[in-house]
Amino acid sequence: MKIAYASDTGRMRTDNQDYVSVFINQSGIQLAIVADGVGGQNGGDVAATMAVSHIGNQWEQAHIITVDDAKQWLVDHINSENDTIVQTAHRYHTLNGMATTLVVAVIFANEMVVANIGDSRAYVIRQRQMRQLTTDHNLANELLQEGAITQDEAVTHPGRHLITRQLGVTEDSKADLFAISIQPNDYILMTTDGMPKHISDEEILQIVLAAPEISQAVTQLITLTNEAGGSDNVTVLIGHQESEVN
């Protein structure tokens, strides 16, 4: 899969606590990963960098070739990284409370395994329609699922900023985990919450489909996010499955 990504501080922040990268294992399988240091907490940038670099470097040493093995690998390494972040935060008082969101995709020729914890998102664009794959782990979404607020209310509810699951802080690091098929001409899009705060799904879809190259779509989405306010760091990763891979 062809992949492009970029990250930007935004217009309101002085530092960037997002981190993004792509890694390839010993069997040639890609792993894309996006993290967002949570809520400006102490060491959020450290937690995000740790999560991406540690999980990514371990992936580069792996020989995973099946979906089932990828699922178990992600569970094991996300749990292990959570322990590492918690222990590091306890060791250094300046990092106390550090945490990060995480969305990660292991990309096979015809299937993709996705794991997420927090409110960084993964989408799939197929046949000119975009669908969010991940569930936001924040208070507003939990209230929505319980029927306590409506979809319209969830968009502006203050609880959308309160993360209910994250990597770090506690020993509970349960991530959502699932697999989906990949079809020719599919796009995957992974992002921190900085972009959806300012751009609608319809705008995102139109930019991705209209751009001649996915790298241009990434740039345009970040630019539009900043023009619309840029209240947070913004990170965008787009993958395009141009054709069948044998």
List the helices and strands and how they pair.
Elements: E1 2-8, E2 18-24, E3 30-37, H1 44-60, H2 67-91, E4 99-107, E5 111-117, E6 121-126, E7 129-132, H3 139-145, H4 151-156, E8 167-168, E9 176-181, E10 187-191, H5 201-210, H6 214-227, E11 234-240
Antiparallel strand pairs: 1-11, 2-3, 3-4, 4-5, 4-8, 5-9, 6-7, 6-10, 10-11
Helix pairs in contact: 1-2, 5-6
Q: TL;DR of this structure?
A:
GO terms for molecular function: protein serine/threonine phosphatase activity. By secondary structure, the chain is of the alpha+beta class. The protein has helices spanning 44-60, 67-91, 139-145, 151-156, 201-210, 214-227, and strands at 2-8, 18-24, 30-37, 99-107, 111-117, 121-126, 129-132, 167-168, 176-181, 187-191, 234-240.
Task: Explain this structure.
- This protein has 246 residues and is an alpha+beta fold.
- It has a single domain, classed as Phosphatase 2c, domain 1, CATH 3.60.40.
- It has helices at residues 44-60, 67-91, 139-145, 151-156, 201-210, 214-227, and strands at 2-8, 18-24, 30-37, 99-107, 111-117, 121-126, 129-132, 167-168, 176-181, 187-191, 234-240.
- Strand 4 and strand 5 form a beta hairpin.
- Helix 1 runs antiparallel to helix 2.
- The longest helix has 25 residues, at 67-91.
